[in-house]
Write a structure and sequence with these properties.
Elements lengths: L13 H17 L10 H16 L18 H13 L8 H14 L2 H12 L5 E4 L15 E4 L5 E7 L10 E7 L10 E7 L5 E6 L8 E11 L11 H13 L7 H16 L6 H29 L8 H23 L7 H10 L9 H12 L6
Parallel strand pairs: 1-4
Antiparallel strand pairs: 2-3, 3-7, 4-5, 6-7
The structure holds flavin-adenine dinucleotide.
Amino acid sequence: MSRGSEPVDLTYTEEELEFRARSREWLNANVPRDLRSGDTAEGFAQHVEWEKRLFDARWAVVSWPERYGGRDSSLWEWLIFEEEYYRAGAPARVTQNGIFLLAPTVFEYGTPEQQDAILLRMAAAEDLWCQGWSEPGAGSDLAATASRGVRDSDGGWRLTGQKTWTTRGAFCTHLFGLFRTDPASERHRGLTYFLVPLDADGVTVRGFQRLDGDEGFAEVFLEDVHVGDDAILGGLDDGWRVAMSTTGSERGLTLRSPGRFTSTAERLIELARERPLAATPALLDRIVQAWIDAEAYHLFTLAQVTGIVAGRSPGAESSLNKVFWSELDVRLHTAALDLLGAEAELDGPWTRGFLFSLAGPIYAGTNEIQRNIIAERLLGLPRK
Ligand SMILES: Cc1cc2nc3c(=O)[nH]c(=O)nc-3n(C[C@H](O)[C@H](O)[C@H](O)COP(=O)(O)OP(=O)(O)OC[C@H]3O[C@@H](n4cnc5c(N)ncnc54)[C@H](O)[C@@H]3O)c2cc1C
């Protein structure tokens, strides 16, 4: 089969339509309103409460196996659920670094014991995971990771180092991150992927504010933190390969499903209808283009899912998603602020959404880095 040649079936089966109706009905009846930001201690607790309700009703992780709290739903049904989730105005998932980033890697690389120990508690929002990738000297250049793991004479490992920009680190219970376990190694080699409880001796978590004033970030300091061998995900010194599986999920479809953007585009159209005087022809063109782009992303992801179902991994293609969704999000929110004019300063959701959209081209690997990946790995251009 050649790459990307599968026809995309745009029709829904009876079961899928029924699944959509059931999820819509439940979400409409249950979605909470007026939660505080999930990047504050109080708001995070409210979000976790909501995620527990999702879990109890088995909507938290629909595509996972039933024994881990899912419904064994297909990827198509997961996409449908995501569309309905955002259409209903449900809050962004504070468990996302666990369920959308770590979990696919645990399914791929975890031992059966690790899967049993991690996945159900993650789905139930009992264990809350944060991502310990970035360090003061390793952002875009993740291979410069300096945190290290040293074999403990009594067995297991001692972890030491500093992680930064850890989203919601101050509120989470566990961290996944890379540590250099082969001291003689350089760059991508000799790194190991560890799973670390944040209440372990030697861990200090210090939350700090983002641009919008919320305590959304944390620095995590590790000093001689003991973990067992079962804290390693994938092989010893094989952390880079395992981490690339996580970044594929982070950049691609899993973290940012199209429903998030198509629902924002629908809200933007509503806003334009409510403000016919503000919607100048030039602004209307931008709004229509942003709506078209959201639909284009939707169709692109349907093609991607078709490929995944046919057994093909998106690989470096997830960098295309990342550049597209992050820049689209900025365009959608900028158009909304232009419609609102001076009132934008009084409008919480669009202004907050705009501020967060500005971070999109940075997190999950900056867009400059994604363009390098697209140039080298998808287009085959020379590195220099
Ligand atoms: C909202 C948000 C949430 C985040 N959450 C987390 C988290 O939970 N866990 C975590 O580990 N990290 C997190 N990060 C950190 C994020 O991963 C890093 O900010 C990102 O990888 C960039 O690293 P840096 O900030 O060190 O910038 P640098 O790597 O110092 O880059 C600075 C600038 O140089 C450019 N640049 C660097 N190298 C190249 C190159 N080779 N070619 C072209 N341009 C280049 C970059 O594109 C960027 O514009 C988050 C960031 C944000 C904004």
